[in-house]
Amino acid sequence: MAFLTSSADAEVICQTVQRRERIDPACFIGRGKAFEIRNLCAEHEITTVIFDDDLSPAQQRNLEEIINRKVIDRTRLILDIFARRARTQEGKLQVELAQLIYLLPRLTGKGVTLAQQVGGIGVRGPGEKKLEYDRRRVKERITKLQKEINKVSEHREQQRQRRRGVPLPIIAIVGYTNSGKTTLLNTLTSSDVFVEDKLFSTLDPTIRRLILPNKQKVLIVDTVGFIHKLPHQLVAAFRATLEEVTFSDLLLHIVDVSHPEFQKQIVAVENVLQELNALGKPMITIFNKTDLVKNSSLLPRLERKYKSNISISAKKGWGLERLYDSIIKHFGKERTSIDLVIPQARNDLVSLVYEKGTVLSRKYNGKDILLQAQLDQRTAQSLKEFIKKKRRRVAHYDSLHN
Predict the structure, then answer these.
(1) At residue 401, does pLDDT exceed 50?
(2) If 340 and its partner were Cys, which of 52, 140, 319, 371 is the partner (CB 3.0–4.6 Å)?
(3) CA–centroid distance for 244 within its chain
(4) DSSP code per residue over 60-106
(5) Which of 187, 188, 260, 267 is nearest to 227 (CA)?
(6) Which one, of 46, 85, 21, 334, lies nearest residue 234 by Cα?
(7) Residue range(s) occupied by CATH 3.40.50.11060 in the chain
(8) Residue-wise over 202-221: b if at least 16 C-beta within 10 A, else e?
């Protein structure tokens, strides 16, 4: 939570915890604790109080009245960070949609206006007519944004269709925010995608082509980072972006193994993958930032616990050979041997076979080229009309009587 706050360019002055058997329906915390926080704010000149959980609109209003400071919950903080990080038009649309979905139930006429969004202190609420107008404007804007994002989703589907025309396996890098996904992408593909040691520095998916040591070409996708208790508004708004994960052939789950809570982060990522119906996809777990690990027994213990795992340092370039080997081995399992009959006029298809697979033999038969090759399932499927059909022996009825 402190890292989230600093990522929003705010300074953490102090923090407090309350243990309760159940949430207070009016204030989330007890009223006594709320007055204690009010005194802390006055003592340390604190302007904003952030809760590490979601608050209902009523709880937020009641807390602001008691504490007399701006009160923000976890979802609002994450939305603010996303708004700061959004660079492309698509990212800005998705963040705005999530913000408005969050804002709508908080338009109650008690200090929350479209201009304030998070609730002003001591400001008189709008009149009923103004409030209804604000709500209508928000709903209209939500509908418009959803239509625009649907267009983005359609555009992404068209891009995927074009990629399927030249079928390359797709690898998606997933993981907790700030685990090193973009650094790994840059290291593997010699790219210079923006990297920053802050949460959610990547909001828009970046796709690069990667040539493996065996000359096989794949596409590798960098995705938005996941986080514990990722707001549902963001999952819904970023679904067009997160679909890149669901259409991938292999997931690289990168874990910041130097983080003290990395095992909880693994669970958080798996929960989001479950929500995207992508948890059952083939996956290699990558323990990153091993150069920062002090405990020498940690990595051997993790390698015994987790299947299909690799320990690396994306920043230092350690362990990449093992990662390459694991990727090549994975796609090698899915290769099949086929015989192709391709017209000599279709040199583009011959080049495709050489690019995507391994040619075992090449012969000429009149105007056709006969190729025996090993190809991945997707490329083989795209060439199914050129697969050599095996001739079946048929004993004709007439010949049996001659």
Answers:
(1) no
(2) 371
(3) 8
(4) HHHHHHHH-SEEE-HHHHHHHHHHHH--SHHHHHHHHHHHHHHHGGG
(5) 267
(6) 85
(7) 2-132
(8) bbbbbebebeeeeebebbbb
* CB distance 273 to 193 below 8 Å: no
- Decide which of 156 and 289 is more confident: 289
Q: Which CATH number fits domain 168-331: 1.10.287.40, 3.20.20.70, 3.40.50.150, 3.40.50.300?
A: 3.40.50.300
Of residues 341 and 107, more confidence is placed in 341
State the DSSP H helix or E strand holding residue 31, giving kind and residue range, or none if neither. Answer: helix 31-44
Q: Residue 136's pLDDT is what?
A: 87
Report the candidate in 331, 380, 346, 349 with the shortest Cα–Cα distance to residue 217.
331
- Can you say how many angstroms the Cα of residue 161 is from the centroid of all Cα atoms in its chain? 20
Helix (H, G, I), strand (E, B) or coil at 174: strand
Length of the chain (residues): 402
Q: Which residues pair with 339 in a beta bridge?
A: 372
Which of 360, 348, 358 lies closest to 386, judged by CA? 348
What number is the average pLDDT over the span 236-252?
Answer: 77
- The answer to whether 319 and 257 are in contact (CB under 8 A) is no
| Higher pLDDT, residue 243 or 170 | 170
> What CA–CA distance (Å, rounded) separates 51 from 39?
17
> How far apart, in whole angstroms, are the C-alpha atoms of residue 346 and residue 307?
43
What is the CATH topology of the domain spanning 2-132?
Answer: Rossmann fold (3.40.50)
Q: Residue 379 is inside which H or E element, if any?
A: helix 377-382
What percent of the chain is predicted at pLDDT more than 90? 30
- 189/287 Cα distance (integer angstroms): 19
228 vs 201, higher pLDDT: 228
Over the stretch 111-166, which tens digit does the pLDDT of each residue have?
A: 444 444 443 322 333 444 566 778 888 899 999 998 988 887 787 777 767 766 55
pLDDT(390) > 50 = yes
**Own/partner pairs for 189-197, CB < 8 Å, 24+ apart?**
189/220, 193/222
Please say if the pLDDT value at position 7 is more than 50: yes
